[in-house]
Structure formats: C-alpha cells, structure tokens
C-alpha cells in the first residue's frame, strides 16, 4: 500500500516547479495552501451605488462573529489590491460584504463583481461585537456604518425572543438607505427591534444632532440605560463620543462605558502634518513630493506605486514597508520617528523631510 506522504512526494517531483495544490487549484480555485480564497455566490443590489457580495470561503476561513471585518483582496488589471470590509451576513452563515462605490477598489467591486469571481481573503477580525450578556441595545449608524450593525441585527433579533434593540440610522434619502425594506420587515416581524430612519435630505431634512441629547431623547428616551454601538463617519462618531462623555460627567454612570464605536478611518491629530518631504520609492523608481498631511500610502498610490495595504487606518499592519532613510511623522500623534530598516505603517505616517522606502 502506498502511503499519502509518498504519493505527495511523487506528485511534487512530477510537477516541479509547481506544487500539487497549484494543479488542484485549476480544478477547485478555493484549494490553495498559499492564499485563503472565496468564490462569489451571489451579488445583491442594495442601493443604486451599493451591492452585497456573498461568497463561499475555502478551507482556513474562521467563522465570523457578528460585527467583525475582514481584509478582502481583488485583482484589478493584474494587480492585487487589499481593502477591509465589514461582514454584513449573520454569524453562522456564509460571509458577505456590503460595498458602496466610493474609492477605486470599492467602485470596481460594485461595478464588476459577478458570480464565480474569486476573492482573496484574510480571516475575520475586530472587537466591534455583541455583548456577552443580554441587555437593551442602542445602535447609532450613518451611511455605510450600518454594515457591521446589520450583521448584529440579523444574528440577534431572529434568534433571541428577549432581544431589545433600537436602531437609529441616518442616510441622505430613502433610496440611499442600506437594507431599508429588510429592516422595516424585521421590525414588523420581531417586536424586540425598533427602527428609526433619519433622512437628512427628506423627512427630518437635517443631520441627526448629537451635540446635545435633544434628538436622541426624542427617538430613544432611555438611551442612557442601553449599551450603545456607533458606526459611521468620523464627525458622527466624534459627536457621539463627546455626548456620552458629557453624560458620564453629569452623573449618568451607566453612560461611562456603554458606548462602543467602530471607525472606518484613523483618528488623526489636527495639525500633525508638518512640512512633508520628497518620498523616493526605491524599487519602483518613483519620486514624489508629498505634503505633510498626506500618508505615505496615498503618496505612493498617487505616484503609481503598487502599495501593500489593508485596513488603511493603522490596525492590520498589512502596509508595513521598510524605511531605507529619513524620518516619518505619525499623523495620529504627531510623533516623528524612523531608523534605517524600521518597518513603517504607510497608512498612518507621512514624510517628515526626505524619505526613502524599500518598495
């Protein structure tokens, strides 16, 4: 009897320089020991500019928790680009991402993705997840910030008869509102879900004002007693954070630790940009003069350099690039740092004088 390891060695000798998995991937594109992949199984239109892309991951994928995100790679004109997207499917189901056509990669995904396409994947990550113990919840979302919260709602509400969730979602118009009809149907079907749509160009005709508690008191009078989750644009999250901080300072002790936020962009220190400098991309033979508030990642992409990236906000460290010479400024703190050979996060650092990168 021929053992499996012996068969594998024989196959490797016959297929050199290929590996057996390389040939198997021609039959099953999800079979790869080098890179986790997924095949697109369905593409659903959500709004004129948004699509939900469902995919079946290959071996090595870890089931996601509701609210987590994953890095997704897509090849465009022969170049693999990575971006981070929240997973909108409920926990326990095959994953899906809901993408709005903003930015180069997202626009390509919305416009061109079709059933059968292959996505490159990284495992789910993130701590923006449901609390371990049941309690009343308040979800504050704006725009595409609804995506991770939708995963939470789809996971919790149909499965827990004791669910108590208030969702306040801000969008420009009804046509722009992600999952609008599904949310109303869920609210009709499950009494534990209350949905408030806040339309800034219809109905209310203005932005949800979180500079004080007036609007929040109107839509959710018991907001101080709920575990709150917020996701959306930076100014929306900054206002929510400030409101909860004030509530805590005024003696609403339950509001002190009851707000969990998910940001899609790093928190940058105002005025931390400095003077900028000339950035040389050694291996790409590209040079660009970058202002002090421009990240090295953006500077490289604008110069046509294929830059590694993922979350683009200083979390996943996929953008790490060796520094050959010069110093950089962390736009979150204003700190200037850099030594030869240091791995630099290009998504949150800018040039602080002349910089040479090994890419």
Automatic annotation (TrEMBL):
Keywords carried by this UniProt record: 2Fe-2S, FAD, Flavoprotein, Iron, Iron-sulfur, Metal-binding, Oxidoreductase
Entry annotated with the keyword S-adenosyl-L-methionine: no
- Domain of life, per lineage: Bacteria
Q: What Gene3D superfamilies does the entry give?
A: 3.10.20.30, Nucleotide-binding domain of ferredoxin-NADP reductase (FNR) module (3.40.50.80), Translation factors (2.40.30.10)
Residue ranges occupied by any 2Fe-2S ferredoxin-type domain in the UniProt entry: 277-359
Q: Which residues form the FAD-binding FR-type domain?
A: 33-131
Record's keyword annotation contains Metal-binding = yes
Q: Which GO terms describe its molecular function?
A: 2 iron, 2 sulfur cluster binding; metal ion binding; oxidoreductase activity
- Name of the protein this chain belongs to: Oxidoreductase
Protein source organism: Intrasporangium chromatireducens Q5-1
